[in-house]
Amino acid sequence: MSVPYLSPNYRQDQVDLAKLDDRIRVYEDQVRGWFLEPAKALLSVPNSAFALLYILMGYFEHHAIYLKDAASGGARILPLTMVMNARRSITG
Q: What are the residue ranges spanned by the domains of the chain?
């Protein structure tokens, strides 16, 4: 049986998720491989603006959920306005 991938470049047996440095490396690889690189690849594709926006909204939603969860102790469902407000607070 194959070992599952946690991100595009890291398999479960290649990292120790009890270590903060490994968790950070996996998370960075997830963001780059599943959000930023696909979004970057779409920049040159005609009429891809909506697909690009959809990918990037997932990136911002992910961070908004983390921020909301940390502040509220467990809320998971967020309306779009909360996601956008969180994005503004992250980007300034």
A: 1-44, 49-92
